[in-house]
Amino acid sequence: MWALLPLKDFVQAKQRLTGCLTVSERRGLFHAMVEDVLTVLAAHSGFERIVVVSDDPAAQLLAEHYRIDCWSERDLGLSGLNGVVSAALNKMAVLTANESHPVAAMVVHGDLPLLGEQELNVLTAKHQLLMKEHRSAVSIATDRHGLGSNILVCDPASVPALAYGRDSCAIHYQEAVAMNLPAQIISLPGIAQDIDTQEDLSRLLALSPNNAAQRTLAYLHQAGIAQRLRQLDNEAANTSAQAWSAV
């Protein structure tokens, strides 16, 4: 199993949080979430190799810190998430072409601060079970809405057409079936909680998880974001209550 972590330009990350976070806060949040993800991946014994794909200097420094590989988007020759991941998986397929045993690639995104070892073990075990009678298979760990592909596990030499974005989970599943690949959709609560919106941040703060999202939560509190979001949530709740009482 290889892990692939495609990372955007940190300054451009988490655009949907523009309404509640400044540019520097979004960058700091994304950096903290990526560190939470890399901490779990680097400590996991199930990965033969971990690869970050990015041209951002911050990503390159993180790769050096965690002693993992960093591939340049520019060198892959494609742009956009779908193109970059496809090119990286193709490079993996070339590098592992002579392997005698099946190879799997796990595409993990950087906004999964609640990623944990136990859920990675469950996901890996379920994928291995699917591959018992097949050399290639596709497993999708979806988001809490059942729409996104927070983690995609596949054979780098047999990749379904990638369609990250709206309804990617269903599309990736359908593309795998069209290729006659056994496929499954898996829901795991930690992996399902990606961070895209203010609501996602509020949910994360309300969960108060143990031994997870430590860097993300520390950043949210140290930067004063947690207090600000709680105040906004309280104001919204009060406004809603007043509107109901006026009916």
Entry summary:
With 247 residues, the protein is an alpha/beta fold.
Tell me the layout of helices and strands:
Layout: E1 2-6, H1 23-43, E2 49-53, H2 57-66, E3 69-71, H3 73-76, H4 81-95, E4 105-108, H5 117-130, E5 138-142, E6 149-154, H6 168-178, E7 183-186, H7 189-192, H8 198-207, H9 214-222, H10 225-245
Task: Describe this entry's structure for a reader.
- The chain is of the alpha/beta class.
- It has one domain (2-241): Alpha-Beta Complex (Spore Coat Polysaccharide Biosynthesis Protein SpsA, Chain A), CATH 3.90.550.
- The protein is 48% helix and 13% strand.
- The protein has helices at 23-43, 57-66, 73-76, 81-95, 117-130, 168-178, 189-192, 198-207, 214-222, 225-245, and strands at 2-6, 49-53, 69-71, 105-108, 138-142, 149-154, 183-186.
- Strand 2, helix 2 and strand 3 form a beta-alpha-beta unit.
First-last Cα distance: 57 Å
Instruction: Please give the radius of gyration in angstroms.
Output: 19 Å
How would you sum up the global shape? globular
The name of the CATH architecture is: Alpha-Beta Complex
SS summary, helix count: 10
Please identify the top-level CATH class: Alpha Beta
Low-confidence stretches: none
Any key phrases for this structure?
Spore Coat Polysaccharide Biosynthesis Protein SpsA, Chain A, single chain, 247 residues, 10 helices, globular, seven-stranded mixed beta sheet
